Amino acid sequence: MRLATLFAALALAAPAAATEYWAVANTLSTHSQTECYACQDGKTNGFNWGGGIEARFSHQLSAQVGGYRNTYSHGTAYAIGIWQPITDGTASAGFFVGAATGYKSDPECHRNLCPVGGFLLTFADDRYGFNVMIVPAVSKNTTNVFGLQLKVRIH
Q: By residue range, what is the domain housing residue 76?
């Protein structure tokens, strides 16, 4: 939660005129492996409902904080920093890195805080958009994840 507080403070400290704020809805995900030893019904959860806020400081830099129902159907809080150096009008591509909670059975996590990172594709106009997140498997205990976030500009 300290990391989420830090990202929120960074978002609020940015100059208001240069920062865009977006409401983000976490929706669907698909996993490269659907069988899951730690999941409630033995299969990965493909509906990761949740929400968050994205603060875009520039065309290349942004941050996101929020929460969702994860693969194991546990509550997850997350905070990520985003760098998207490839930008072309309404499309951007780049990377994200941060931390998430709610993955207690993963040995990569320390005290319920797990590192996260991957690729992020964004398609957005002045009001609406969506993010496609690609999270590669980092160990035998994880799986590749493709996630979809819908978003609406709020400021």
A: 2-153
User: What CATH number does the domain containing 48 carry?
Assistant: 2.40.160.20
CA distance 148 to 136: 15
Instruction: Give 3-54 pLDDT, tens digit per residue.
Output: 555 555 555 555 555 689 999 999 888 777 666 655 666 666 677 789 999 9
Which candidate, 97, 112, 107, places its Cα nearest to that of 139?
107
How many CA within 13 A on the CB side of residue 22? 24
Long-range contacts of 55-58 (CB under 8 A, 24+ apart): 55/10, 55/11, 55/14, 55/19, 55/20, 55/21, 55/22, 56/19, 56/20, 56/21, 56/22, 57/14, 57/18, 57/19, 58/18
| 104: number of Cβ within 10 Å | 12
**pLDDT for 120:** 97
How many domains is the chain built from? 1
